[in-house]
Design a protein that fits this description.
By secondary structure, the chain is an alpha/beta fold. It folds into four domains: 9-66 and 86-96 and 224-277 and 647-662, Rossmann fold; 101-219, Phosphofructokinase domain (Rossmann fold, 3-Layer(aba) Sandwich), CATH 3.40.50.460; 316-321 and 358-433 and 560-619, 3-Layer(aba) Sandwich (Rossmann fold); 442-556, Phosphofructokinase domain (Rossmann fold), CATH 3.40.50. The chain is built from 21 helices and 16 strands. It has helices at 16-28, 40-63, 89-92, 107-112, 132-141, 157-170, 194-205, 225-244, 266-283, 298-305, 315-318, 370-379, 391-403, 434-451, 471-480, 494-507, 529-539, 562-588, 592-595, 628-634, 659-662, and strands at 33-37, 73-77, 119-125, 145-147, 175-181, 208-213, 252-257, 260-265, 321-322, 327-328, 385-389, 414-418, 458-464, 484-486, 514-520, 545-550. The strands form five sheets. A four-stranded mixed sheet has the order 1-2-7-8, with helices on both faces. Strand 11 (385-389), helix 13 and strand 12 (414-418) form a beta-alpha-beta unit. The longest helix is centred in the C-terminal third of the chain and has 27 residues, at 562-588. The two termini are 38 Å apart. The model is unreliable at 78-116, 275-352, 593-610 and 656-663 (pLDDT under 50). Keywords: Allosteric enzyme, ATP-binding, Cytoplasm, Glycolysis, Kinase, Magnesium, Metal-binding, Nucleotide-binding, Transferase. This is PFKAM protein. It comes from Columbina picui (Picui ground-dove). Pathway: Carbohydrate degradation; glycolysis; D-glyceraldehyde 3-phosphate and glycerone phosphate from D-glucose: step 3/4. Its cofactor is Mg(2+).
Length: 663
């Protein structure tokens, strides 16, 4: 983490004299393009510098300091984590930057501290006037309550908080977690601090309460795989924006919308920040989150969902709730195969919630069990079905659609939540579990490279999982700085292998005397991991030696990353909202079976023709394949990047969707 160029806040730049000095430095050194990397202050400073450029240049001419080369083109590098969730960071926070965005809390480690006692933990996180980190942390660790500046709590929040904590204790929980953003305030603008909350809990409830202020520990450490890849992608987009820009091109902010890099006008981003700050200062309120919801705490979640457990919108509970009866329906380990064990239960068969990975159901396609499944649907009064899984879940849902012709009981709404490390479910961009596996691979590659710190001229051959899908190998290659990543989707031959060997041979002449090569487990049936290892060992004899590692199933275990926890929660909420709406719609038309209603299985959008499987358990289109040229560029191969597709400036949009209408 950190900055290799040593950049930091500059107080001089806040003054006109400081900005004049900066302009003089640019002119003297012939710098005509400027890429600003930073946060809210950098965005504001870049906009001010852009607005004053003409007058600064005129002042330099008047004093005879230097001759102007022209107007510099300014670009900002922006980012967002919801990537994957379809919102633009600049819409919500107005920040452009590649700051270290680390999710702060690993609930197994944090929660285990209090599992032997009955304790309440109050955790204060950074973020200044933005509650993003606090909110996402609360979702990731299953907090009981969260305070953020954008949504001050009601006047009687003390009573609500104490009631919530009491309910969870009476429900059997021995641990309470409260997350507080450092800028949290009440409706009257008064600060809400972690010490205030501790005093309240101790005084009213008498609970053993501990306060933890994370502080700057949040800003250090090793970047996640997502942050590494994001930095590379934003860097490439910023360079392309500068190369394509003209003196008339307005300054832009490079950001991420979904999984696509976009450019937003700098002026619009600054206006979004300024406008919302003024609104918050005037009313004591901030803006809602990206869904328009008021994320004051789990109390808001309760209104939409009823009474959740201490994990709030826990995926395990949420996606297996039977909306028609309003209580969980646990039909055993594998209800899809028609083998429920013990019928409906009040509690899930697996403990752990958000902090544990894995899944109890096994993988069995339903085609052979249509009759048993139909009987179980009738026996347990199932009105909708949510299928969680990978390509088998997608295939199984298609089989269920086909079975509707013979079995009326299958004419119920159902949808698929993609959950597989392979990330190969048609119709989806991301799958639950893929981010955890990717970070496991990235961390392992870091350790493997570190093991060679004292050994020169060594190349590591690493085999990753993913079936025929090269997502993990490609993204881990980008995050880990690989010299090559062999995947099934991109054909390679012996000539390509030889080019890679020659590249590594040249690399050993530089100061970086180690290499990393990733291979997807099923990229080629002949060019196996052993074959590539033997080839590299033979061709590199006397220049470098090789080691190989097959990571295996260690990529599927471990604690879920914060992204996977939040993604699972959001997908579960979205699936239940969709299926509940379908059930209500069916009820108005006399029932699902008589009305023949039922949605095509998906978690995001109905698969269009490009998403139909093309064989080898792969979608026809995979967005991440466009990132593979970046991998070779970073590895310093002499290749040309396709620049035929020009990006255009997009406008900042602000989505306002109420929680009640969406869930």
């Amino acid at each position: 983490g950190g900055t290799v160029i040593g950049s930091a806040r500059c107080q001089d730049f806040r003054t006109r004299e400081g900005r004049l000095k900066a302009a003089r430095n640019l002119v003297k050194r012939g710098i005509t393009n400027l890429c600003v990397i930073g946060g809210d202050g950098s965005l504001t400073g870049a906009d001010t510098f852009r607005a004053e450029w003409s007058s600064l240049l005129g002042e330099l001419l008047k004093t005879g300091a230097c001759a102007p080369p022209g107007t510099p083109k300014t670009r900002g590098s922006g980012r967002e984590r919801g990537q994957k969730w379809g919102q633009n960071w600049c819409q919500n926070r107005g920040v452009v930057g590649m700051k270290s965005r680390r999710i702060l809390l690993q609930s197994p480690d944090f929660g285990s501290k209090g599992m032997g006692h009955q304790r309440t933990f109050v955790l204060e996180v950074m973020g200044r006037h933005c509650g993003y980190l606090a909110l996402i942390t609360a979702l990731a660790c299953g907090a009981d309550w969260v305070f953020i500046p954008e949504s001050p709590p009601e006047d009687d929040w003390e009573d609500h908080l104490c009631r919530r904590l009491t309910e969870t204790r009476l429900g059997g929980s021995r641990l309470n977690i409260i997350i507080v953003a450092e800028g949290a305030i009440d409706k009257h603008g008064k600060a809400i601090t972690s010490e205030d909350i501790k005093t309240l809990v101790v005084k009213r409830l008498g609970y053993d309460t501990r306060v933890t202020i994370l502080g700057h520990v949040q800003r250090g450490g090793t970047p996640s795989a997502f942050d590494r890849i994001l930095g590379s992608r934003m860097g490439v987009e910023a360079v392309m924006a500068l190369l394509e820009g003209t003196p008339e091109t307005p300054a832009c902010v490079v950001s991420l919308s979904g999984n696509q890099a976009v450019r937003l006008p700098l002026m619009e981003c600054v206006q979004v920040v300024s406008g919302e700050r003024e609104l918050g200062a005037a009313t004591g309120h901030g803006k809602p989150d990206q869904n328009g919801a008021n994320p004051t705490g789990t109390a808001q979640t309760q209104r939409a969902w009823g009474k959740p457990d201490r994990h709030g919108a826990n995926l395990i509970r949420t996606v297996q709730t039977r909306p028609a009866r309003g209580k969980p329906n646990w039909c055993g380990e594998n209800p899809t195969s028609g083998t429920p064990r013990g019928g409906p239960q009040d509690e899930p068969p697996t403990p752990g919630g958000l902090s544990h990975g894995g899944s109890p159901p096994c993988r069995t396609l339903p085609k052979k069990y249509f009759e048993e499944i139909s009987n179980n649907i009738n026996a347990f009064g199932i009105h909708g079905l949510i299928i969680i899984g990978g390509f088998e879940a997608f295939t199984g849902s298609l089989e269920l659609v086909e079975g509707r012709a013979k079995f009326e009981e299958l004419c119920i709404p159902f949808c698929v939540i993609p959950a597989t490390v392979s990330n190969n479910v048609p119709g989806s961009d991301f799958s639950i579990g893929a981010d955890t596996a990717l970070n496991t691979i990235t961390t392992t590659c870091d350790r493997i490279k570190q093991s060679a710190a004292g050994t020169k001229r060594r190349v590591f051959i690493i085999e990753t999982m993913g079936g025929f899908c090269g997502y993990l190998a490609t993204m881990a290659g980008l995050a880990g700085g690989a010299d090559a990543a062999y995947i099934f989707e991109e054909h390679f031959n012996i000539h390509d292998l030889q080019v890679n060997v020659e590249h590594l041979t040249e690399k050993m002449k530089t100061t970086v005397k180690r290499g990393l090569v990733l291979r997807n487990e099923r990229c080629n049936e002949n060019y196996t991991t052993d074959f590539i290892y033997n080839l590299y060992s033979e061709e590199g004899k006397g220049i470098f030696d090789c080691r190989k590692n097959v990571l295996g199933h260690m990529q599927q275990g471990g604690t879920p990353t914060p992204f996977d926890r939040n993604f699972g929660t959001k997908m579960g909420a979205k699936a239940v909202a969709w299926i509940t709406g379908k059930i209500k719609e069916c009820s108005r038309h006399g029932g699902c079976r008589t009305g023949g209603a039922g949605g095509f299985p998906t978690s995001q959008s109905p698969p269009s023709p490009p998403h139909v499987p093309r064989g080898h358990r792969l979608p026809k289109e995979q967005w991440w394949l466009k990132l593979r040229p970046i991998l070779k560029i970073l590895a310093k191969y002499k290749i040309e990047l396709d620049t035929s597709e020009k990006a255009h400036l997009e406008h900042v949009t602000r989505k306002r969707i109420s929680l009640e209408s969406n869930i």
